[in-house]
């Protein structure tokens, strides 16, 4: 998947560049997305667009959180598009990073999702 470099984009502020860099770091990472209807989707982050829709691959759907008891079998979705308006939270599964970095990532994604003038990543 081709992604424009941040230098080729006409971003107005360094904050937008930082948010874009974070999104690019998340490409091909496993993420857990909690939705407004209570479902949780787990999959590989492939791309997003200017409307905050997210495409994930190898996606599994859980009606209850995946770490709840009793554990349920997920429904396999494969490739899925999640509308940004239905996203409550996103967690990046990156075991090589410190937990404080995950908090920074969560804040950056929340900031990006709430902004009205973000740019397309893929």
From TrEMBL:
InterPro entries listed in its UniProt record: LSM_dom_sf, LSMD1_Sm, Sm, Sm_dom_euk/arc, snRNP_SmB/NAA38-like
A matching Pfam family: LSM
Lineage, uppermost ranks: Eukaryota, Metazoa, Spiralia, Lophotrochozoa, Mollusca
GO MF entries: RNA binding
Regions of compositional bias (Polar residues) in chain numbering: 1-15
CC per GO annotation: NatC complex
Domain Sm: 18-96
Family stated for the protein in its record: Belongs to the snRNP Sm proteins family.
Database matches in SMART domains: Sm
Protein name, entry field: Tigger transposable element-derived protein 6-like protein
SUPFAM superfamilies, per database record: Sm-like ribonucleoproteins
Segments for region (Disordered): 1-22, 93-122
Source organism per UniProt: Plakobranchus ocellatus
PROSITE patterns, per database record: SM
